[in-house]
UniProtKB/TrEMBL annotation:
Keyword Transmembrane in annotation: no
Pfam families the UniProt entry points to: MRM3-like_sub_bind, SpoU_methylase
A GO molecular function held by the record: RNA binding
Name of the molecule in the record: Uncharacterized protein
Taxonomic lineage: Bacteria, Bacillati, Bacillota, Clostridia, Eubacteriales
UniProt-listed GO biological process terms: methylation; RNA processing
Source organism: Butyricicoccus pullicaecorum
């Protein structure tokens, strides 16, 4: 396996990876993100995501077949000593493989094929977003829609939290009003999870097999704009004394309620 050795901190690829790890605007501008680990590299390649560069820390044992697959698809293979390698990552104890790839975020959506979706309204915590994407992938949700004010789904912390679901779970970004209108136009009722006077408890039989749920911001909940546009408002019945649930946990419960009937 042939690698190009990086010997300077001014190396263009090294600087590119470092910016992808730290700058949202740069990720949006380039249409790329950075990931770490052989498992994630395999997920990217299996998903036909274009991989740009693979950087291996000197002395790291890697799967030659995996690297060969990346190279065959056009990726450049590079290596660097630890001091330089660490400049390209945002974690203190990184894995020995980093790579850049295109952002797996859809620009267009065919809503005629969507049965179940989650809309995220101003969700800010990377861990929560990663958990929701991982859960949506586990239950084969058709779509996760990120609306105004959401954290970047391709930020390294989010991608790590998805455990590979970032490459499997369909995700798009679009304005809230546009997303709700598109769902309703295709006969999909939109529910908002909110503590409102006219909210009703989640029905024992769960949600309809074709439905969408809005999850709001961790601190402020669902916006008034979303409440005005949704079809129904609901709450998750709780026997304890907690007033609310973590956004990621609430989303997981509602995703289960949307999908438990199967089909």
């Amino acid at each position: 396996m042939e690698f190009t050795a990086i010997t300077s901190r001014q190396n263009a690829t090294l600087k590119h990876l470092a910016r992808l790890a730290r700058e949202k605007k740069y990720r949006l501008k380039t249409g790329e993100m950075v990931c770490e680990g052989e498992k994630m590299l395999g997920e990217a390649l299996d998903s036909d995501i274009r991989v740009g560069a693979v950087l291996v820390r000197a002395g790291t044992a890697c799967d030659d077949a995996l690297l060969a697959r990346a190279a065959a698809q056009g990726a450049s293979l590079l290596t660097a000593e630890k001091a330089l390698f660490d400049l390209a990552t945002d974690v203190e104890t990184p894995q020995g493989v980093l790579f850049s790839c295109e952002r797996p975020v859809r620009q267009t959506v065919d809503f005629s094929s969507v049965r179940r979706a989650v809309l995220l309204d101003g969700l800010q915590d990377p861990g929560n977003l990663g958990t929701i994407l991982r859960t949506a992938d586990a239950f084969a949700l058709d779509l996760v829609i990120l609306c105004e004010g959401c954290t970047d789904p391709t930020a390294p912390k989010v991608v790590r939290a998805t455990m590979g679901a970032a490459f499997r779970q369909p995700v798009c970004q679009m304005p809230l009003a546009e997303a709700i209108d598109a769902l309703q136009q295709h006969g999909i009722p939109v529910y908002a999870a909110a503590l409102e006077p006219d909210s009703v408890p989640l029905p024992p039989e769960g949600l309809p097999e074709r439905s969408a749920v809005i999850i709001g911001n961790e601190g402020n909940g669902v916006t008034q704009a979303a409440l005005d546009l949704c079809d129904h408002k609901l709450i998750i019945p709780m026997a304890g004394r907690a007033e609310s649930l973590n956004a990621g946990v609430a989303a997981a419960i509602l995703i289960w309620e949307m999908t438990k009937k199967g089909g």
